[in-house]
């Protein structure tokens, strides 16, 4: 016999990204915004001091290449995690497979229906596509600056 699904279980599935993927997305967006600032606004440090070490002669193209590699890695990680979770989320919201909703108590069914009535398209754009576009802009800004 199938277990009864609670409203909390249903709400967890309404969010397309897990906390781990959200952290990866946050890091990806942070590195992307730093890259955009360095690429388009020409904010390249000339001196770096950290842990008692000092670097005076920094070649900007090396710093931009390192930043580009970080953005590519973070973007790949986010795309991989996000794609897996978004596919599962879309499959879960499939109208043909909503029989699980019938296992909820009546009041919880109504609340879950209201909360899941949104279109997945805008949510996908905001949570998944927009961050990838920002990352692409970051890579382009670094390439523009390096050339």
Number of helices: 5
Number of strands: 2
Shape: elongated
Distance between the termini: 64 Å
Q: For the residues shown, what is the average pLDDT? A: 77
Strand content: under 5%
Which class best fits the helix and strand makeup? mainly alpha
Please give the largest β-sheet. 2 strands, antiparallel
Number of domains: 1
Residue share in helix: 55-70%
Question: In what order do the strands lie side by side in the largest sheet?
Answer: 1-2
Keywords:
mainly alpha; 2 strands; 147 residues; two-stranded antiparallel ribbon
Fold and architecture overview:
- By secondary structure, this protein is mainly alpha-helical.
- It has helices at about 5-15, 20-40, 60-90, 105-115, 120-145; strands spanning about 50, 55.
- Strands 1-2 form a two-stranded antiparallel sheet.
- Helix 2 packs antiparallel against helix 3 (about 60-90) and helix 2 runs parallel beside helix 5.
- The longest helix has about 35 residues, at about 60-90.
What's the layout of helices and strands?
Layout (H helix, E strand, L loop, with lengths): L6 H8 L4 H22 L7 E3 L2 E3 L4 H33 L13 H10 L4 H27 L1
Antiparallel strand pairs: 1-2
Helix pairs in contact: 1-4, 2-3, 2-5, 3-5
Quick rundown:
The chain is mainly alpha-helical and 147 residues long. The chain is 68% helix and 4% strand.
């Amino acid at each position: 016999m199938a277990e009864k699904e609670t409203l909390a279980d249903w709400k967890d599935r309404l969010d397309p990204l897990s906390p781990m993927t959200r952290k990866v997305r946050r890091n990806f967006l942070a590195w992307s915004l730093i890259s955009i600032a360095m690429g388009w606004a020409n904010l390249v440090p000339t001196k770096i001091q950290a842990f008692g070490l000092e670097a005076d002669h920094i070649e900007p193209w090396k710093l931009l290449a390192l930043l580009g590699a970080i953005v590519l890695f973070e973007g790949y990680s986010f795309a991989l995690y996000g794609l897996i979770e978004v596919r599962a989320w879309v499959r879960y919201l499939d109208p043909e497979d909503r029989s699980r909703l019938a296992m909820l108590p009546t009041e919880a069914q109504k609340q879950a229906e209201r909360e899941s009535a949104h279109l997945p398209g805008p949510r996908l754009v905001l949570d998944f596509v927009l961050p990838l576009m920002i990352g692409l802009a970051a890579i382009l800004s670094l390439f523009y600056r390096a050339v």
